[in-house]
Hints:
- The complex is a heterodimer of chains A (286) and B (362).
- With 286 residues, chain A is mostly helical.
- Chain A has a single domain, classed as Orthogonal Bundle (ABC transporter involved in vitamin B12 uptake, BtuC).
- Chain A has 11 helices and 2 strands, in the order ααααββααααααα.
- Chain A has helices at 2-29, 36-54, 58-79, 89-111, 137-159, 161-171, 173-178, 183-205, 215-230, 236-255, 262-274, and strands at residues 127-130, 133-136.
- The longest helix of chain A has 28 residues, at 2-29.
- With 362 residues, chain B is mainly α.
- Chain B contains 16 helices and no strands.
- In chain B, helix 4 (61-83) packs across helix 13 (277-290), helix 4 (61-83) crosses helix 14 (296-315) and helix 5 (91-108) packs parallel to helix 7 (145-165).
- Chain A binds chain B through residues 32, 80, 83-84, 87-91, 93-95, 97-106, 108-109, 113, 217, 221, 224, 228, 258-262, 265-266, 268-269, 272-273, 276, and chain B through 81, 87, 89, 139, 142-147, 149-151, 153-155, 157-158, 161-162, 164-165, 277, 281, 284-285, 288, 318-322, 324-329, 331-333.
Amino acid sequence: MLTILFDGVAYGMLLFVLSVGLCVTLGLMNFINLAHGAFAMAGGYLTVVMMNWYGISFYWCLPAAFIVSAVLGVFLERTLYSRLYDKTHLDQVLFSIGLIFVATAAVDYVMGASQQIINLPAHLNGRFEFLGASIGVYRLFVIVICGLLTVALQFVIGRTRFGSRLRASVDDGRVARGLGIDVTFIFALTFAFGSGLAGLGGALGASILSMDPTFPLKYMIYFLIVIAVGGTTTITGPFFASILLGVADVAGKYFVPSIGGFIIYSIMVLVLIFKPEGLFARSTKR
Amino acid sequence: MSVASATDMSAAAAGPASLRLMSAARWRWYEFLFWGIAVACGLSTLAPALGFTVPVIPTKLMLMSEILILGLLALSIDLTLGYAGLVTLGQGAFFGIGAYTAGLMAKYGAGVAPLSDPLLGLLGAGLAAGVVGFATSFLVLRGSDLTRLMVTLGVALIVEELVNKLKDITGGTDGLQGVMSSSVLGIWDFDLYGYTAFWYALGITFLCFWFCRRLVNSPFGYSLRAIKGNALRARAIGMPVNARLIQVYTLSAFIAGVAGGLLAQTTQFASPDMVAFHRSADSLLMVIFGGAGHLYGGLIGAAIFRVMQDFLSNITPQYWLFWVGIVLILLVLFVRNGVIGLMMAASQKYIAKVPPKSGALK
Lengths: 286, 362
């Protein structure tokens, strides 16, 4: 029981790192980027290539995945995404689906359609018993990393000057612009950072989540659920939503495998119906 | 006397507007051309039997029936997207429900003769999808475009999950096999080459198209366009906005179900592939390829999409998604309103260049 809870929390933490960038950019620019998972896939595949082809240590792969995905993100943001901010949601969705298709086919072409497997360093494998729960070392590692990231994120957004500018831009972009905050720059930076986090999540998750060319499509729905449940105005909302989703998904697969994803999809639809702005969102009346 | 003059007055006042509406609903030459080409495509398959070959038009009947069916699915999306402005990413759910309903009716109705009748199967497929559409239409009323996209996507995923899990009924991932419909109208059997399938699909697609065309040129259709333009104002002038949206969403689900039923009957197969996410995405792409809000957009888009898929899959199997993605990105960035938008822009340029003869054009 505790094991399931633990695995669920690890999974949820991973989902949070993967999707937090999307939540912030969605709240910031009202831009629905379904291709967010493609950046995670970039990070994951980079890890696979670096470890399996060149034998580089796993610990070097994590920052590399972050940096490469972030650079990729800011490049695409400046060249393509920025043209779509004033278009309709439908255009944005179509555009990002197009990106998913391109990414999927490109990865399929380069790496093949099969699932990629990485060999973690030996000291990250294995399990130990703690308070009756069997705890995987790697999952603990994931929780620690993601936990540190979450604290760091919360600190940056809540305590720094950049964070307060970001929050101002999310709350009301026009007024923020009027106060002299460079919203475009903040957005580009946030987009890069969010993509980088997704890449890092992909690298961390390369051995837990199955890494194959359909990754962006498969996990798109999870990101959407996190947004739907967590809302886009804070980062604590998506955090709790991710943990909830992670635990629910792992527990669901363990206890009632026959109905699979049915529960979480239903939860998403129900939340969207009754609380369209998210379960944990501050109720902002404008 | 005064009554008569009053009616005269109102008739005169109503004159130009109603005339304009009537002329908007008139069939144009290019519409005849369009359906003429569709019929010619079917007839061209008879050409080899007569001793000559048609080089341009592909003699692939199965491909052409599939284009018609996908076109019908795209048409159903055009109805909600192009006219009512409802964004949906879950039309594949209704398509799949229709396909499985028709498939099951044909499979298990074989003993009970009337149930395996193809037309009855289509009706059942449409009704099943329509009922689900009606039930889920209330979800679509709420929230923004984004919420709608996610809700429709969620519904489609639930349906896909159901299809995969209810192995006893749907056959799970193996698909539903042994779908054998009885002959169309009791006369034409489904043959190996797909002659019956093609004409049957063409007939049904045209019928649905004709119905949609009547619908969008009716007051109902104009009220949809008003809602798309500005739902708040439409409500202010007394339009039952929610009721209209529910109606059109249900109708669109019905048509998507019919399209799904058609595919199951003509291919004699129903598989989870028919409810998969890419089905919803592809059909949305077709509408965007062709251009939303003209009814023809979906049909043209389906033809382009499917021919492109056939062509590119021959060159680079499995990587054709890449090209679809590229085309999609370019379309969103540079082209408004798809192929029809391009053609209209071209024709307007042409008209501007050639001065119209007196009275021929306004």
